[in-house]
Structures are given as C-alpha cells and as structure tokens.
Amino acid sequence: MLPDQAFIENELSRCNKCGYCMQSCPVYRAERREANVARGRNRLLRAVLEGERELSREMREPFFDCLLCGACTNDCFGKVRTKDLMVRAREAYAEDFGSPLLRRYLFHNLLPAPQRLTPLMRLASLGKRTGLARLAERMGLLRWLSPNLEVADALVPTMPKAFLRDRLAGMGFRAVPHAAGTLYRWEPDHATGLRVLYFIGCGTNYQLPRSGEAALRLLHLGGCQITVAPNNCCGLPPWSYGDTEAARLLARRNVELLSDLDCDAIVTECGSCSGFLKEYGEVLGEVSPDGPDGASSAAPLQSVARGPGGELSSRVRDFTEVLATLSLPRPVATGTPLTYHDPCHLGRSQGVREQPRKLLVDVGGYELREMAEADRCCGGAGSYNITHPELSRAILGRKLDNAGATGAQLIATACPACILQLGWGGRERGEGFTVRHVAELLAERQGLELGP
Amino acid sequence: MTTDLADNLRTFLPAGAVLEEPLQLALYAYDGTVYEGQPDLVTLPETTEQVMAIVRACNAAGVPIVPRGGGTSLSGGPVPVQGGVVVSFSRMDRVLELDYANQRAVVQPGVINQDLQNLVGQQGYFYAPDPASQSVCTLGGNVGENSGGPHCLKYGVTANHVLGVEMVLADGQVLRTGGKALDWPGYDLNGLIVGHEGTFGLVTEITCRLMPLPERVVTMLAIFGSLQAASQTVSDIIAAGIIPATLEMMDNPMIRAVEQALQAGYPLDAGAVLIIELDGMAAGLQDQVARVRSIGEANGVTEFRQACDEAERALLWKGRKGAFGAVVNIAPSKICTDISVPRTKLPETLAAVMDIGRRHGVPIANVFHAGDGNLHPLVLYDPRDPDIAAKVEAVDAEITQLALQQGGVLTGEHGIGCCKRKHMTRMFGPAELRAMRRVREAFDAKGRLNPGKVLPDDLTSDPPPWDEEGKKPRGNGPSAATVAVCERLAAAYTEGRKAVLRGQGTKSSPPPEGAEVVDLAALDRIVSFDHENLTVTVEAGLGFAALDAVLAERGQMLALRPRFRAQATIGGTLAAGESGPCRLLYGGPRDLVTGLQAVLADGTMVSFGSTCVKNVAGYALEKLLVGSRGTLAAIVEVTLRTLPRPQTMRTLALHLEAPSGAEDLLAALIASPLRPAAVELVHGMPIGATADAAWTLLVGLEGFAAEVQAMADHLARMARDHHLPPWQAVDGDYLGLWDRVTDLAPGPVLKASCPLSATAKLAHELSGLAEGLVLRAGPGLGLLHLALPPATDVAAFQHGAQMVAEHHGGTTSWLLPVPERSVTRLPDTTRDVVLRLKSALDPESVLPPPRF
Ligand SMILES: Cc1cc2nc3c(=O)[nH]c(=O)nc-3n(C[C@H](O)[C@H](O)[C@H](O)COP(=O)(O)OP(=O)(O)OC[C@H]3O[C@@H](n4cnc5c(N)ncnc54)[C@H](O)[C@@H]3O)c2cc1C
Ligand code: SF4
Ligand code: SF4
What we know:
- Helices cover 49% and strands 8% of the residues of chain A.
- Chain A is an alpha/beta fold.
- The radius of gyration of chain A is 21 Å and the shape is globular.
- In chain A, 55% of the residues are buried.
- By secondary structure, chain B is α+β, with helices and mostly antiparallel strands.
- The complex binds flavin-adenine dinucleotide and iron/sulfur cluster (2 copies).
- Flavin-adenine dinucleotide (FAD) is lined by residues 31-32, 67-74, 77-78, 89, 109, 131-133, 137-138, 140-142, 144-145, 147-149, 197-198, 202-203, 413-414, 450 of chain B.
C-alpha cells in the first residue's frame, strides 16, 4: 500500500515518459540504464500504484539509488517531483520489507534525543574503537556522517574535539534559561536590529563545527543578535530513507521548540537543513504538495505559510541569504582562484545560487571560476556514498573532473555532506583539492579566528 | 530459450550488460509515447564487435532485435512490440574523432546530440540538426528517425548532415557507407538509411558534418493579431529570399498558457507569436533584419521585439522554451503529434486541428516550426480520465488524416514507428509499400530487425482521404507520355527484354543490342508550380532552360546547375545524381528533391516523398532513386524546392601558380562563417584576364547585395592576410562563367571525392597524371572533377587516380556515361547491398546493371 496516494497519482499524471530527466540525473549519466533515471523509477511506481505490479525486493535499486537531488525535476516540463515520490516509495518499501533495526533505533531513539546522541558521538570522537563507539559505527552512525566505511577509520581521529555546541560559551554566547531548555544568546557589538535564531544541524555540530562557528562569527560581525536553541535533527536523514514517521516526529519537535521563539529569521549554514526546514509545511502535510490550489505548480518546492510548520518554513533562511544582506568590509583580492559547488538542497531546492557566489567574491575577495555542471549532485547525498560506493565514486569523479578543469585547487560549497564527500574524493584521487565551507573561507578573509 | 540466449550473451558482454529480470525488462518497454511492448532481454553493448556478436546470437536463436537510443521517440520506434532483444546504445557514447579541418565528427551512436554540440561549440562549430529533445536523444536515434529541429529550416535535417555510418546488418555483416568524403560510388545509401527507424541494421558509428558557427545571431519576436497575418509573414519572409535560422510560431491557446505560467509579456488576445532568428555574417544581417521588420509591418504586426544581447535573447526565447511546461497548467499530460503540410496550408490546417480538438472536447495548443510547415499540435489530457485514451487516439488519427487532405504527410520528423503504421496505407499505394518492403528485405531478409514498425502487415491500400472528398491533391494524374513509359517498361518486363532509359542523351551509353530504349524526353510538362510553397513539380524530360523561364516569372530559380545544363533534362540529372559547384551553398540533387514519381521496371507507377519539405513517412526511396543512374526505375516526375533568385551574384578570381599557394587561404575560408555559393580551383581552363595562369581559384557569391559585399570584403582581408594578390572581379555573365567551369570538357569525367582539407593537394597531384587534363576541385565539398583528354587510357588513368585519392582518404568514380573500362570497385558489403537493392526493385534485371 502506497502512502500519500493522491500526491503520487497527481505527480505521476504529469510524467509522459519524455525522458528529459536523463540529461542531468547523475546516476543515469553514470549508469546509462533506465532503472537509474526518474522516468524508469516513476514508471515502476506507477505500476505499483495501478496494481500492475507488486512492490518487490527488485525495486530496491530503482527506488533507493536515487540521490534525491532534484535535478530531474528541474529538467522536467511537468516538474514531476521524483525525489518526493521516491521518499514515498521508500516508505512503502520499508513498510513491506522492513528496515534495519539499528537504523530505526538511530532515527527513532537517538536523533530525537540529543542527550543520548551527543555522548555517543563524543565517545566516538575520543575513544575511537571502544564499546559504544563501535556500536555507533555499526549503527551506521559514523557512516551516516562520514563519507565511506574505509575512510570512516581515517575520519574518526579527525573528528573534532569540541562540537559546535561546546564552543558557544567560549565564543561569547551566554545561557538564557527557557521552558524548553537552555538557550544561548550572543548580543552584537553594533546592533543592526536583526535577530537570528540559529539552527545547528547534526553534521555541523558533530563533524564540521568550524563551519558553524564561522557562520556564527560572521553573523555576529554583521551585527546580528543570535540565539541558539536545543533543536533536534531537521529530519532529513530519516525522510531520505522513507522513514517519514521519524522525520515528522523530529519536524514537530522542532516546530514546537522554535515556533515560540521570537526572531526575524531561522538560519543555518547547512544547505540541507535549511532546505528541509523550508519544506516543513509540506512534510507535516499542512499544505497540499501540489501547490496552494491543487494545481500542479512549477514553482520551487517551498511551503506556503498555513500551519505552524509552514509558518516556521517561511522564516527559514540559508546563512548565505542572510549574510548577503549584511554589510561587511570588502577585503583585498586574494588572487586565489576557487570554484563553487552548489549543494542540491541549497541551489536547486532553495534557488540560492547567486548569494554564495557573490559573497565569495565580495566578502571573500576570491576569484570565482565557474565549473561546468556546478549544480550537479556530488554523490554525497546523505549516506549515498556508503550505500552505493561505486556509483557514488563515478558521480564524484565527474564532479571533480569538472572542478579540476577550472584550474582552481580550492572548492567552496555550503553543506557538510558535500564537504565530506568532495574532500574524500579529492583525497582518494590524490589530487590537491581543498574543500571548504563558504562560511569558513569568508571568516578567514574577514580576520575572524576560529577554533580547531 | 531466452535463458540460453542470455547465457550466451553474457559470455561476451561486459558484466551487467545483459538484463533479464522482468522488472528491468519492463523499463525497456516504452519510449516517449503511450505504446509499450515487453522485451525478452535487454543488452547494453559498448563496441561494434559486441553488437555483431549480439546479432549473430539472436539470429541463431531466431529472435527479433530492437535497437534503442535514448528512447525518446514519439512514434513508438524503440518499443519492442513483438518482444525480442533490445540493444540499447546508451553505453556506446564515445566521441571517436573530432576532425575540425575536415568539418567532420565521428561518433558512436549513443552520443547525446547536446553533448556533441557542447564539445564542438567550444571550437566554434555546430552540428545543425537540433531536435527539441537534443539534450537527451542520441545521434543513433536521430539517424533512426531522420530528426529535425528548429534550425533545419535553414540547414536541413539529419539526412543532410550524416555522411557515413557503420551498420551491423541483420546477418551480422558490417556495412560501411560514406565517410569523411562527401560522395562515394554506389547508390546513396546514407540517404536511404537515415530514417530507417531501426529496421535496416544496427548503427554503430556515425560520421557527421560540422559547420562553423555563424558570426552573429539576431533574435526577433513578432506578435500578431491573427494566425493568418503571422503565417503570411512567414511566407513573405521566405519568398523574399530570407531563410531564417529558425522560425517558430505559437498560437493563441499556447500564448495564453505561456503567459499564465511565465509572464513572458504576450498579450492574451494575440493570435500568434513568431520567433524569428537570423544568423550569418554580421555585416549583412542588419539589412535582412530591416527587411523582416518591414514584412512584419506590412502584415500588421502589433509588436516587434529584437534582442541585442544574450540576456535579451534568452528573454525572447523564454516563452517558447517554456511552452511544453506551460501547458501542464491546462492538463497534466500531453501527446505531441507531428504532421507536415505545405507551408501555405498552415492557417487552414491549424483551424481544422482546433476544430478536431473542440469536437472531441480535448484541448490543443500549438507551437511549431512554421518555416517548413511542420506542425506539432499538443493534445492535452489527464491520464486519470478513464475515457481519455480512446479520445486522444481518435484526435491523433484525425489530425493525421487532415494532413493528408491538405496535401501533407503522415509525419514530418517523428517517424512512423508503430504509432502511424496503420495510416501508411492511406498515404501510399500497394506498389509503393511493396517497393518499401522489398528495400527493407534487401537489408534484413528475415524481418528480424525492429519488426512491427513502419510498414503495415497488410499492404492493401485504403482509399486516400482526398478520394473520399473527391479531390486530387496532385496534378491531373499521369500524362499520356508517362502512361507510355509504363507500357513500354511493362512490355519489356513481360517479354523478358532489356530496357534503357534516355533523356536528352547527354549521359547515355549506347544501348545494348535489342534493348527497348525508353525515351523520357517527351515528358516535358511543368505539372505544378507552387511559388508560395517554393516547390515545383515537373516531368522528368523537362529541360533546365524551360523550367528556368517559368520560375523566373516569379523571381525564383532551381539551385541545381549540373554539367551541360543547357541540354540536360532534369530527370536525367537527378538520375545521375549530378550537381554543380553551387552544391556548396544549396545542396545536391537529393537535398533539393522532396518527392518523385517513378515507373518501376515492371511498369508500375510509384510515388515517394511529397511537396512538403519535412517528411519522414516511410523509407526515403526518393533518395535511393536520385543518383541510381537509371538502374532501378524510370523517374518520370519530380518535386523540387525552388528558391528566390539572389539579388546579387558575383565571381571573384585569384590566379595561382599551384594550388599549394592557396591552401592556407582555403583552410581559413572553409573554417570561416562565410557562406559562398561556390568555391572551385580550376585547372586547364582559361578564365578572366590572366588566362595563362595554370590554376584559378574561383569564388561565387550569391545573396543580398549587402551580404555579398560583406563576404567580398572579408575575402579581400583574407587574401591580404595570406600574402596573396588581390581578388579580381570576373565581370560578365555569372551563370555563363560557372556553367563553363561546370561543363569542363566533353568526354569522360572522373570524379574524386576526398576529405575537405585534402582537396587542393589531391587536385595538384591528379593534375600531373595526364597532359591536357581539365579539372575543377571544390575544397568546400571535397569533390574534384577531371575531364580526360581524348585518347586517354581511362582504366590506367583511373587506376592511378584511385591510388592517389585513396592515399588522401578519398575515392573515385565516373560521371555518366561510365566508360567501358571503368575500374571502380565497391567494397564487398556495399556491393552486396547495392545488388540486393537492385534486385529488390528490378528483380528481372530489365534495366541496366549499376555501374560507377
Ligand atoms: C519532448 C520531446 C521533444 C522532441 N522534439 C523533437 C524535435 O524537435 N524533432 C524531432 O525530430 N524529434 C523530436 N523528438 C522525438 C525524438 O527525440 C527523436 O525522434 C530522436 O531522434 C529519438 O532519439 P533517441 O535517441 O531517443 O532514439 P530512440 O527513441 O531510442 O529510437 C528512435 C529510433 O531509432 C532506432 N535506433 C536508435 N538507435 C539506433 C541505432 N544505433 N541503430 C539503429 N537504429 C537505432 C530505434 O529503433 C527507433 O526506431 C522529441 C521527443 C520528445 C520526447
Ligand atoms: S519525470 Fe519528467 S522529465 Fe522524466 S520522463 Fe517524466 S515527464 Fe519526462
Ligand atoms: S532526484 Fe536526482 S538522482 Fe534521483 S532521479 Fe532525479 S536526478 Fe536522478
């Protein structure tokens, strides 16, 4: 039985198998088989929907090797939302064939409970291969956050000693008690009046706290008052696995916590989090995913503010969107060329392409060299690199070829998953790419000191 | 059985290249239509050798083979309607060679059209056929369907740009046709194969033409109150001798949909929006833009926009590009139908199309290539509506029928496939269908390749729709002279005698003893001249002079200027496949012929092609007959494209000691965006002032005065840059001079064909082979013509010439009449195919055997 049947039916009614989705589906471009492209995936889903075919284990590949990158929707005349269809397909698949227990435990018991997750991650970062850390690893936890099983080893020692939340006090944040838990607030030196509620994503907190720190320092430098709340995971990882129940639980928790807090914008430097937060209204079923009037909409996937989820979504901004509105000094040009990779959830989902580029040039003083297919998925997508290592490698290869062709050695991007994936790829190919978050690059160029 | 076959296939195919899982197979059941058919197996080969092995294995197992490119066909082309093994070319996607000096690309068939464009675009070149699906369709699929696109109005369709293929035939043999050089001895297999819809063989390599990007593109958008006014504007632009690079039209329902979705700034009550794009030399363009504008104004254009930069250009295209997406607001799904009518019938046809939609209660919106009469009514529907399938099918059938009533064809560019197979008997009679079936069998005797496509199982003809209405779209039926031809061939056939065809005798060899000489010179009528559609239909025996006189009254011309134009008949010239130097700009005979009627060797009349410039209904037998040298059938009537006469014609000459002096200049000229009508290196013929120079480089310029001047200026600069003396204008009779150059001298003429960049060198080397040789060499075409002095040993000469030509990647053959001692040899597989085609159409060998 498929969930959200009306949604599925409506989306599929617009797919007339034209095949346009072949042009930039990264998986198809690597595999060149119908099973790996939106047209094929959707044809199968239709077979299930119409009862022509039973949901079967063979559908695992077409339904699960999708990166949920959304490139196909971009190319599609009818804007068929294959990635959202695949989430429903995965949900049905998990329903029929189950999903690994440990993964369920992670999504249902750990992600919604940071008080349990954080110590586990800390153990992993310190104790490496002992007890709980090994369990965490077996749970796919580290793998979920790190690019590859083999490199998970290599990555553990480099896991940060201090997570982002640990750093707040040192940066100047002070604790503010609140009904829902402790808030942290950092008052600006010169106020612009902009009050920002900062959302700390899991990847940022546990894996790449420097990017988060950089973003926070830049916002502060720009004159924002910043508040950090004890938010949960945004819910994207379970959503991607079709565990919509866990995702909705996380989303509801976040909505409860954040809706009460007064602010001008909810901001994060994780492109995936900001993208998913912007879809809360829809995730929580407040707005018909077909658009306000049931008419199929060709607009980017953003919620209309109706329920509390949509309200929250309407206040979410990616960090680069906010920073681009602040005035920061323009440094002298570095002369270092760099190239920018659009994270799927930032570029395509949110349409945020100009801001990071403009910031790199104006606030970073970098020479920006556009790579071909800059917005094509790097193959990082959640834990794709773990579940589909070969495909992921092929997809990444094309990305790095394009980056390399610009002659730049520095790749900037704005999502932890992309940073890990690109960094891993660069190391694996033995090429001297450095991969950095836009925020880090800008903070450095603005003379801001960051922790290790 | 299929498990055995799968096991066998796995022994030589890469891991993962054989799919047999039912679920995987289901994903190769479809294309871009609603038709589906489950394959038994799917293979994903990577090399020609693997394809050969697949074909052999399938033969041994006796299963059908269905080639598949991107699966974007809109006619059911790659749908395995009878099961079998799908050969998907998606992994044969390597670009094998980009040879810019010779303006050729050699690619595997799975290369995506856009990927090739992107590659060559960086070097200043383009591949002209640009189907709207170019970002996902493959070149193999384009060859399969003879695809077109917006740019085809000016530059032609796939058939005009594919110069060679490697094809694995049904028996596992490999046929190579053409190559980097333009003309190869034998029938025009490229012309026949392009549009074969996967039924002649598996194409494993394609050689295609690259063209230098134009210097400048100007985009205009014109809004009209009525469709009529817009259509008239289209006709007037073309009648004025302006061939836009693209001419796209949207009708009112489409305008509304686009405006609602995209706010492109179109008035909601506009009757039509035209997007006109002109390209060419920067210097000449402004003049044409002004002309287009005043034509629009004369037709009451309500608004005219012109793009000055890339951003503005994108804005003008925004509505057109978004059109397919915009109609989603009307209904979620659509089928894109495809018909082609004479351009002048556009308004009437569109009105009737909308009527059909209204009658069935199905919305239709139109966006189409207006310049060539190719329509794609988008039939919009919601697949969740339970009765919709039958309705949509009925609408499609009626639209197709309508096209025939309007003198049009079943399909302009999407192909017949399985979708329109059932309509074939409405467009073609049993004789044509039988001929097509025999031609198909010449490639695939057992019918194993893509069965269930193109030809219906039952070839009995349905009454054509115009008969039901009591009108005849084509002339008044065969003339007495044509009937006589039928009778004489029929007689020869039943009496077991030989026959030879004869026009004015300029190309004839003496007939064999006792042969029936069928004289076609009496077929000299002009059947119809549709000056607005720019087509003329004439009988084969008509002379060029007589036709010219009639065309001139409308300021038009036939851009075919073969040898001995003053005496030759049009039919004879087409049968011989001859053209002159102006082929460089205007194309050769098969590019100018849109349709023809012929009498087969048994005396039956057949008719192929049409008066539409875009037509992919059935196999392109008209292309096969053009250049078949009277060995397959008697061409009795042809429809040709005409063109407005150029405003200015001018010849420039440069005298040279040796061709080597001009080699660099020629390379630069060919790579430039200049589009001269003719470029020839002439040897052994006095021309202009310095008549004693050994070599003369002649350039013929034709077009608007401003354009011609711009080209002349550009040429002058080029000569200076290459330290050559200035060009001399050759005054006097432009056509007379070029006729003299074309004619060369009486006596046998050997033709050499080679890659472009080798032309000058080859000319030089060949000129040394005999004393008193008169030759011309066209470096833009890679074609050389050598008139042998009397008493030359033709066999010895050809032998030497062939060696030299082969050394440069070329070949030789004779113009008609072929000397007794010709030593032209076709490669074995090509010869086999040529002979099979010969016996397909002339099984009793009534007509002479093919000689080259
Ligand atoms: C939205 C849309 C827009 C389109 N716009 C245009 C347009 O503007 N102009 C136009 O002409 N068409 C258009 N088409 C139709 C289609 O894209 C073309 O017919 C295209 O050439 C098909 O290419 P393909 O690679 O998808 O081939 P397929 O659909 O896979 O195959 C097409 C045919 O070629 C045969 N074939 C494919 N590869 C080989 C091979 N290697 N050897 C032998 N046979 C082979 C197949 O058997 C089949 O008969 C459009 C289609 C869509 C969906
Ligand atoms: S998903 Fe969109 S692009 Fe892909 S086949 Fe369907 S309609 Fe075409
Ligand atoms: S979402 Fe990305 S990976 Fe998935 S089908 Fe679309 S383009 Fe392919």
